């Protein structure tokens, strides 16, 4: 039997250099050589009907097709008869419509890129029974996903629907979707129907990432965000103004959550307690109050960031736990660090308190602390520094005191934190003591 070398064919439609034609389509076919792609065919003034006639396969060829030009519609028969088709790229062609059935009977299809077109809706039955891994639809004008638009997709790594005009997600648009990541950022989504994600499943034990940032979501509705699998949730740059106890109760395996750039003013007790959250980001809100027990019983927490909020006071009851943390409270309005401020923080924690308005630190602020990874107190208004403040604290990395009003000691900055590896102080010798 004659053996065949795998051949991948690319179909390329050039935009800028195509003569004016009814379709304005140029198709270039490529196959894979030993080390690079080799051009095999150029067809101008082509039609997107029966593309098989332009780049025929023999049943043994693996093919990829890239289409560029003025392509308004993909027809039901556009890719018919190409069972070994692996990839389709129709990028920036002013595409307006995809007929249901366009991708039917393509069992080897693993990537579809329809980015930067003029699609306004995805019709029912468009993406059905596919093994596609990468499905890209960003930068269109999609305002409607019909019911059963995405059905029985078992291998999706990335479903990209960002930068469209979606205002609502309805139950039934995703059916038996197995996915690693769904990008829905930069739409105008304000409503998500209960049950929208009921038949969305993670491809593996790592769970799914759901990015809904830069939309118009006003609240975290626990009946909508009801998902029993591992999930990373991004809700940054929405219009969420209140966190309520129990908002996340139906996300038992929520691993990371970002709520930056919303309108939050406080963090009450009962929102994050007892969760599996490890990575918590609340930057660029208006938070001025955090309940004393807001972060209790968070055994998986390793990173919490509240940059650019309006916090004026540090609560020494925060962060009871055993796992080393990165705590980032940069660019707030903290003015003092109270007694025993850090008694509860886990050993080896990294503290960022830079760019606040800190003027004074209690002599007992670090009572009970034996080891830190580092502490950044730079860009504050500290005038006096007690040389005994960090005398018993091992600092694995650095103590940053730059841009304060602390005078350089005669024996160098090393005396300010004798067990720190590196100390930074403006206009003072930078001493490495470890």
Describe this structure in words.
This protein is mainly β and 434 residues long. The protein has strands spanning 11-12, 26-32, 37-44, 63-67, 73-74, 85-90, 97-98, 111-113, 121-122, 127-130, 134-136, 144-145, 150-160, 168-169, 174-183, 191-192, 200-202, 208-211, 231-234, 254-258, 266-267, 279-281, 289-290, 303-305, 326-328, 336-337, 349-352, 360-361, 371-376, 394-400, 420-424. The strands form seven sheets. It has an 18-stranded parallel β-sheet that branches. Strands 1-2-3 form a three-stranded antiparallel β-sheet, with no helix packed on it. The chain is elongated. It starts with 10 loop residues before the first strand and ends in a 10-residue tail after the last strand. 40% of the residues are buried. Residues 1-23 have low confidence and may be disordered.
């Amino acid at each position: 039997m004659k053996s065949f070398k795998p051949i991948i064919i690319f179909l390329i439609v050039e935009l800028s250099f195509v003569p004016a034609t009814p379709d304005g389509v140029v198709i270039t076919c490529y196959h894979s050589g030993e080390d690079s792609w080799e051009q095999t065919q150029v067809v101008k003034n082509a039609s997107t009907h029966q593309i098989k006639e332009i780049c025929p396969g023999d049943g043994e060829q693996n093919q990829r097709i890239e289409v560029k030009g003025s392509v308004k519609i993909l027809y039901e028969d556009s890719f018919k008869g190409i069972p070994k088709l692996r990839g389709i790229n129709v990028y920036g062609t002013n595409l307006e419509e995809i007929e249901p059935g366009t991708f039917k009977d393509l069992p080897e299809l693993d990537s579809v890129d329809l980015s930067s077109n003029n699609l306004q809706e995805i019709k029912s039955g468009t993406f059905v029974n596919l093994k596609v891994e990468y499905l890209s639809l960003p930068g269109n004008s999609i305002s409607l996903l019909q019911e059963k638009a995405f059905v029985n997709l078992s291998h999706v790594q990335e479903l990209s629907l960002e930068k469209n005009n979606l205002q609502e997600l309805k139950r039934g648009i995703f059916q038996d979707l197995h996915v690693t990541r769904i990008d829905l950022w930069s739409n105008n989504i304000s409503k998500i129907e209960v049950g929208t994600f009921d038949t969305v499943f993670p491809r593996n034990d790592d769970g799914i990432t759901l990015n809904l940032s830069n939309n118009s979501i006003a609240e975290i509705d626990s009946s909508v965000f009801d998902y029993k699998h591992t999930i990373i949730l991004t809700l940054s740059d929405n219009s969420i103004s209140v966190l309520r106890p129990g908002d996340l109760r139906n996300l038992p395996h929520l691993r990371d959550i970002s709520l930056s750039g919303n309108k939050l003013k406080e963090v009450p007790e009962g929102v994050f307690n007892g969760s599996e959250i490890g990575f918590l980001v609340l930057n660029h809100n208006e938070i001025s109050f955090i309940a004393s027990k807001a972060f209790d019983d968070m055994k998986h927490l390793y990173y919490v960031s509240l940059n650019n909020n309006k916090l004026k006071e540090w609560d020494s009851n925060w962060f009871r736990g055993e796992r080393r943390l990165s705590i980032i409270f940069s660019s707030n309005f903290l003015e003092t660090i109270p007694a025993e401020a850090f008694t509860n923080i886990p050993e080896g924690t990294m503290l960022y308190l830079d760019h606040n308005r800190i003027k004074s630190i209690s002599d007992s602020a670090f009572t009970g602390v034996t080891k830190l990874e580092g502490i950044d107190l730079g860009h504050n208004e500290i005038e006096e520094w007690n040389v005994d403040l960090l005398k018993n604290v091992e600092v694995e990395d650095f103590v940053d005191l730059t841009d304060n009003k602390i005078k350089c000691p005669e024996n160098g900055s090393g005396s300010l934190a004798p067990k720190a590896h590196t100390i930074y102080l403006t206009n003072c010798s930078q001493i490495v003591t470890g």
